[in-house]
Amino acid sequence: MDQIEEAAVKIFNAIFNNQKTIDLNGECYRIQKTRTGLRNVTFKGIWFIEQNPNKDSSTAKLAREGHKLLWGIKGRTYIIKVLDGKYERLH
After folding, report:
1. Percent of the chain surpassing pLDDT 90
2. E strand or H helix at 21, and its extent?
3. pTM value?
4. Nearest-CA neighbor of 9 among 80, 62, 79?
5. Cβ atoms of residues 39 and 32 within 8 Å
6. Staple partner for 12: which of 64, 66, 70, 80, CB 3.0–4.6 Å?
7. Rounded to whole angstroms, what are the CA distances from 54 to 37, 50, 63, 74, 89?
8. What pLDDT digit, counting tens, does each position of 35-55 carry?
9. CB atoms within 10 A of CB 16
């Protein structure tokens, strides 16, 4: 498991266990909220954010059905998906 994969899974667990902070490589990161209430953390230039269930997409539908979904976004590209704790590298 590489450093980004390990961090993504830790962030996933922290967000969906309603933690306020997370320790990554000995540094404390605060879990923030967007103005719409989505929890997120930026780590190593990757923005990790939970899926917005209010969108009109198949992944939003999964979130509405109770699945837990975290995205890792770099720039404007979705590069990581963690669905129900399972890590997937997209790019």
Report:
1. 96
2. strand 21-24
3. 0.94
4. 80
5. yes
6. 70
7. 11, 12, 9, 22, 24
8. 999 999 999 999 999 999 999
9. 16
